[in-house]
Amino acid sequence: MLTTPLTRRFGLSAPVVGAPMAGVAGGALARAVSLGGGLGMIGVGSTTPASFVVEQCAIPRAEALPFGVGLMAWALPDRPDLLEATIDATPDLVSISFGDPAPWVPRLHDAGIAVAAQVNTVADVHRALAAGVDVVVAQGSEAGGHTGHRATLPLLQEVLALTDRPVLAAGGIATGAGVAAVLAAGAAGAWIGTPLLSCPEGLNSPAARARVRAAAGEDTVLTRSFDVAQRLPWPERWPGRALENEFSRTWHGREAELARDDAAAQRVADARQTDDLEQAPLYAGESVGLVTAERPAADVVRDLTAGAEAALRRVAGLLG
Ligand SMILES: Cc1cc2nc3c(=O)[nH]c(=O)nc-3n(C[C@H](O)[C@H](O)[C@H](O)COP(=O)(O)O)c2cc1C
Question: What pTM does this model have?
Fold first, then answer.
């Protein structure tokens, strides 16, 4: 049994958070992660309807399982309905990432909800701590989805030196030994997204899951091209790590041109409807090469935890 400030605070048996992944992590995936002993989160994007939050949160709540919701700070000024729906759903944890969490923390704390923030720079850490977040998530650029430019391990070490609050590591962790590594560094747990991209409980399609299983760790690209194509107002400092495909090979690095090309934008919009994986974004991190089988999320979490325990015992054997 692994016990950390994260497991104690949320009553977990695994020091693992299932990352909020818009388009993949709904209530079923969050439920499955929590059944495995971790804390499952539901991902909410900038265009997600508030009704999605209501419906998906009801799934883990129906079984009194712990769960969280992940919101994007930059989207909230235009989408106060997402914050309201989230508060009404009474999750155990809400993450406010990709922007300043300060405006939203008091409302969440007043509702008795713990707040996490993913951080990508030291300035982000200071901002999150000043905002009063309860959990800091050091997200390295190895991560799938939107992320910054610092690697997980050096960023994690800097964050740990700056706070006594629980710190989680995100980005590139996909084995028990990987979980053990960040625990040994001082993290209270791992925040994992990519290892859950081939779980049957996800909202992603079977074809997307198969594509994930076939991909190697070298096959990702950190790019703004998909956001530009979708005309999403993502701040430039957070590109997204996705599997390379025909679209990214054509447009990555040519974003200014892409911003004026409505035909290319339409192709991505259509591709998202038809699940054309050569034109639509499939966000995944560098640990994708380690995801080779379709497995229930609870099994993924249990294996990570058992593997972490075994690795920590092995490491203890190095002493003396
Ligand atoms: C498909 C996908 C979608 C994501 N969507 C979100 C999101 O909606 N909100 C968020 O805060 N993070 C999102 N992320 C980032 C994750 O929270 C997390 O930082 C990342 O998955 C951790 O790294 P890993 O992918 O290497 O495990 C997403 C990641 C992926 C892979």
Answer: 0.98
